[in-house]
Amino acid sequence: MSARITFATAARVLRQLRHDRRTVALLIVVPALLLALLYFMYDGAGGTFDRIALIMLGVFPFVIMFLVTSIAMLRERTTGTLERLLTTPLGKIDLLFGYGLAFGLAAAVQGAVATGAAYWLLGLETRGSAGLVVLIAVVNAVLGVALGLFCSAFARTEFQAVQFLPVVVVPQLLLCGLFVARGQMAGWLEGISDALPLTYAVDALAQVGVSADPTTTMWRDLVIVAGATVVALVLAAATLRRRTP
């Protein structure tokens, strides 16, 4: 993998993203608006908003980046752009890590805006720092990018790419411990939850909510999510096709 080529790929993706105003709005504005909706839903419900909003600061980037990336990569393949790129010295790993870097930077902006809105406009309170929340949100967003790149290899149309959302994303949302404590799940469900990376992202955010200082569990969870991201990127490179038939 060439760092220079990876950075050049990331710069190209960011230039394309800058000219797509709808996608920029989806990445930057929508999470903050959804958090505002949660605020009014749980107004007067004690600490419920703090607990739910903290988790959503990690979930929203994951879902949005999965959707945007899977469709973006599919478009590059169906239009022949990917085929032309791969005739250059650009390798598959360079391409995919460039995508991860570009959307990781976009996720940093997204996380900073959403976290700032949550803490300073909506009154979110946690024991841990907002900086840790942004860090976890960015890592989780890059996980969404990696899984989106991997799943896009198995789709031929944008509609098929979207169909992976309920297959890959929704089960992780249901089993991450947000709706039911993982310890209260049936044993086989808890076992599946243990194998899903979003579970560890949610647990890391929960650690920020209850501890003023970074905990060993939080760092362990973050390493697991980062490791799952790298594995997904490698699998995406192995399954990446030059062109959709």
Task: Describe this protein's structure.
- InterPro entries: ABC-2_transporter_component (IPR051449), ABC2_TM (IPR013525), ABC2_TM_bact-type (IPR047817), ABC_2_transport (IPR000412).
- The chain crosses the membrane at residues 24-42, 54-74, 95-122, 128-150, 162-181, 222-240.
- Residues 22-243 form the ABC transmembrane type-2 domain.
- With 245 residues, the protein is mainly alpha-helical.
- 78% of the residues lie in helices and 0% in strands.
- It has ten helices and no strands.
- Helix 3 (48-78) packs parallel to helix 6 and helix 3 (48-78) runs antiparallel to helix 9.
- The longest helix is centred in the first third of the chain and has 31 residues, at 48-78.
- The radius of gyration is 18 Å and the shape is globular.
- The chain starts with a helix and ends in a 6-residue tail after the last helix.
- The model has no long low-confidence stretch (mean pLDDT 85).
